[in-house]
Design a protein that fits this description.
heterodimer, A: 181 residues, two-stranded antiparallel sheet, 7 helices, elongated, B: 86 residues, 2 helices
Chain lengths: 181, 86
């Protein structure tokens, strides 16, 4: 079995790119492109998280946005799993899993975490749920991560079907090319 | 007086309180889009940083032109086409 050249359809590079942004170009031997592709995708991804907090990725409450965000790959699913399992809890009245409101804190009540009201001492101590993004800022945060996903899709396609003009230049030897004179 | 529990800000977990400056966030977004896009579209990596800067300015310029166009439509064209009473 021959190793695909850097200008052919390359499923291995596509798979690497789907697992980690920029890894596909690393497989193709294009280290600079891999580095800058990863900086672009993760820059947008973490910018979104910085603006909107962990609430910017929510597969349950912002499902449509999540479809676009999922294009980033495993980082989105890890962030969503952290959000769902470590920052959400069940409403003690309705039984619905939700984000916390100001004045509540997350308490493990036996089998599942629930929201309980904070005492004045706890409020004074700065205890409380994570602060979700609201309004336009929340939209910009979610958009930034969706843009990271769409950018990663372009990078994935470029790794899967590399542009021949982007192949790293290798020294050509007459013997390697058949040695015909 | 009730204390504010939002004082304990944790980056990447809590949202930033920059509601008045939301439009400035377009600048880093445009920059990162240019960094990622030009990483795969730039034919010669020797011109990479120049192309990133040019593309960032093109994105921001395009958005600025759209903002001017929509402002003119909302504030000038629509009042001419459908004047509101008062």
């Amino acid at each position: 079995m021959s190793t695909p050249q850097s200008t052919e359809f390359n499923p291995l590079a596509g798979l690497a790119s789907a697992i980690f942004p920029g890894a596909g170009h690393l497989v193709l031997g294009q280290r600079k492109r891999a580095l800058f592709a990863a900086i672009g995708v993760f820059g947008l991804f973490f910018l979104g998280l910085l603006i909107g907090g962990i609430d910017a990725i929510d597969s349950k409450e912002d499902r449509i946005w999540f479809f676009g965000q999922a294009l980033v790959g495993p980082p989105t699913f890890v962030a969503d799993a952290i959000h769902q399992n470590m920052f959400k809890a069940y409403d003690p009245v309705t039984g619905i899993k939700r984000s916390g409101l100001p004045g509540e804190h997350r308490v493990d009540a036996g089998s599942r975490p629930v929201w309980e009201p904070l005492s004045q001492e706890q409020i004074d101590a700065g205890i409380g749920p994570n602060i979700p993004g609201l309004g336009r800022l929340n939209e910009i945060a979610m958009l930034s991560i969706v843009l990271a996903g769409m950018l990663n899709l372009i990078i994935f396609l470029d790794a899967l079907i590399p542009n021949p003009a982007h192949a790293p230049s290798t020294p050509s030897f007459p013997a390697a090319s058949g040695g015909a004179s | 007086m009730m204390s504010n529990p939002t004082l304990a800000y944790t980056p990447f977990l809590d949202a930033l309180a920059i509601h008045e400056y939301w439009y400035l966030l377009i600048i880093p977004m445009a920059f990162f889009i240019a960094v990622g896009y030009k990483a795969v579209r730039c034919s010669d990596m020797k011109n990479y940083f120049r192309q990133v800067i040019i593309f960032s300015i093109q994105i921001l310029g395009g958005l600025l032109l759209l903002a001017i166009a929509f402002t003119l439509i909302i504030n000038v064209l629509l009042p001419m086409l459908a004047p509101m009473p008062g």
